[in-house]
Each structure stands twice: as structure tokens, then as C-alpha cells.
Amino acid sequence: MTTTKAIAVSAALALSATPVLADDLATTTFRDYVDAEGNISLPSNARNSWVHLGSWVVNDADAPGAGFHDVYTQPEAARAYRETGEFADGTVLIKEIRSIESGTKTTGPALWAGEPQIWFVMVKDNQNRFDGPHWGKGWGWGLYKADNPAVNVSESFEATCMGCHVPAQDTGWVFVEGYPTLK
Tens digits of per-residue pLDDT, 2-18? Predict the structure, then answer.
């Protein structure tokens, strides 16, 4: 293979693998995860291909949201946030809450994440594309249970989500202090 041909092949491969830019994020998000009526779907396989922003543990079995909370977003959304300090239009945040498992290990008593229980999904909507019970405060909101992750069981963003998110109002309704990847 000639040097010129090798350079051309490398350039073609690089272009085909070009990541989605923050400017394209809204296009891909509102095509892939939100339908024309504003119904949000739970992105599949985010744990394997998206950026892990951080984790929380609510270690009180009686507390709402008890369990391990792992939060994910698209790689380009994390890059955009680090550059601007704000979530780009089309950013998807997924909070996966897993059960808490425990036992004694060689290092001592330990806790670890078990099976997924629920997922919370937020979709950044700077253009206010939808007017419905799951859209408000610049976001689309969804709640999915492990027994049927295809169905958003949230009553509405006000009834299901806002009670917990009010303390994060000043940071765009997101608890960014728990996400070291955004720093």
C-alpha cells in the first residue's frame, strides 16, 4: 500500500468514527430516545457505552431511592458540560438505581451494587419542544422499573421527580456535586 493510499484510508476511517458533537446531540437524542409526541424511552446499554458521571449510595432501606445510584450520559454531553458548565440541548442523564448487596470480604464488611431496580431519565430540552406531564423546567423526565423498562411509569415530572430535585434547582435541577467526571 502506498503512503498516499494509507493516509487516505486512515482519513476515511477517522471520518467514519467521528463522534457526535454537542451541536448534533439534540438531533440524535430527539431522533433516538424521544418520539414525536414527547414519549421518552430508556436508552439501552448506556452502562457499556456512555460516560459514568458518578455514583451515590442511599444506604437507608426505608428511604426513597434506597440503593446504589450510578449516573450516565453521552460522551459528547459530558465534554460539552466541561467546556460550558451547562447541559447541552439533547443531553440525556440516566440514573440507574441498583439494590445494595452486602457481605464480608477479605477487606472487611462490604457493600456493592446488585441488580437494577429502577432508572430515572432526564432529557435536556432547551427549546421547550413538548408540553406534557413529563416535560418541564427545561427537561423531559421519565421513570422506568426493572420489571418493564419499556414503560415510563412516572405520573408526571411534578409528582414523581420535582420533590427530590428542588434542592438542585440552582444547578439546573441536577445534583452535579456528585459527578466528578463533569469537573
Answer: 544 444 444 443 433 44
* Whole-Å CA distances, 91 to 10, 16, 29, 57, 121: 30, 22, 7, 23, 10
Q: Which residues pair with 109 in a beta bridge?
A: 104
Q: Identify whether 11 is part of a domain.
A: no
pTM score, whole prediction: 0.84
65 within a domain of the structure (yes/no): yes
Q: For the segment 79-114, what is each residue's pLDDT rounded down to a tens digit?
A: 999 999 999 999 999 999 999 999 999 999 999 999
Residue 98 lies in a domain: yes
Total domains in the chain come to 1
Whether residue 2 lies inside any domain: the answer is: no
Q: Which long-range contacts (CB under 8 A, 24 or more apart) does 19-23 make?
A: 19/75, 19/76, 20/74, 20/76, 21/76, 22/76, 22/77, 22/79, 22/80, 22/83, 22/88
- Which pLDDT value is given to residue 22? 66
Q: What is the CATH number of the domain that holds 121?
A: 3.50.70.20
